[in-house]
């Protein structure tokens, strides 16, 4: 069981750290995330994206020609963030940062499981089939479209949760 540790420099040391299950549920329920990758020249690159939290890790997909794919080719270390939409502020809301290494998912069964999770979470807007080692979108006619997306899984090395009266709580894995 992962236990959070409150950083007394940035929070109330007498507060109780949120249980990991609460933070994990927050990650599962989020609709939008931001991923920060590092370009080959060291500059950061941040973009919003959808994804799923499943089996203790964040999963996302990217096209083979996208900037984040080129960045992952050079450096697989990423940060993924999400927060309380509409409630973001200094004394309210919650923000979570997941730090880890993006590892490509190529196993067909794992890809099918993730495609099912995407559909369960986002519905027809993000319906994928698996072709080879990639996701392909399902068109309105039910056919899979051209071009594929590579799927990655980010198991956390560290998760930092901010807000809800505890300040900053860190979970290490």
Automatic annotation (TrEMBL):
One Pfam family matching this protein: PNPOx_N
Gene3D superfamilies, alphabetized: Electron Transport, Fmn-binding Protein, Chain A
Pyridoxamine 5'-phosphate oxidase N-terminal domain segment(s): 23-133
Keywords from the named record: Oxidoreductase
InterPro entries reported for this sequence: F420H2_bilvrd_red/Heme_oxyg (IPR052019), Pyridox_Oxase_N (IPR011576), Split_barrel_FMN-bd (IPR012349)
Name the UniProt record assigns to this protein: Pyridoxamine 5'-phosphate oxidase family protein
PANTHER family, sorted: HEME OXYGENASE HI_0854-RELATED, PYRIDOXAMINE 5'-PHOSPHATE OXIDASE-RELATED FMN-BINDING
Keyword Oxidoreductase: yes
Highest classification ranks of the organism: Bacteria, Bacillati, Actinomycetota, Actinomycetes, Geodermatophilales
Protein origin, superkingdom: Bacteria
């Amino acid at each position: 069981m992962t236990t959070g540790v409150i950083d007394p420099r940035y929070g109330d040391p007498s507060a109780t750290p949120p249980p990991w299950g609460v933070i994990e549920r927050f990650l599962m329920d989020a609709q939008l995330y931001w991923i920060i990758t590092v370009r080959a020249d060291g500059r950061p690159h941040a973009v919003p994206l959808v994804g799923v939290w499943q089996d203790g890790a964040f999963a996302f997909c990217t096209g083979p020609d996208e900037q984040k794919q080129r960045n992952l080719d050079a450096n697989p270390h990423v940060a993924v963030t999400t927060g309380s939409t509409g409630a973001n502020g200094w004394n309210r809301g919650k923000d979570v940062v997941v730090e880890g290494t993006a590892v490509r998912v190529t196993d067909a069964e794992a890809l099918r499981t993730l495609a099912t999770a995407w559909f369960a979470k986002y519905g027809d807007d993000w319906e994928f089939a698996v072709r080879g080692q990639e996701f392909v979108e399902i068109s309105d006619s039910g056919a899979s479209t051209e071009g594929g997306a590579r799927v990655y899984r980010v198991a956390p090395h560290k998760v930092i949760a901010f807000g809800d009266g505890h300040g900053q709580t860190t979970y290490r894995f």
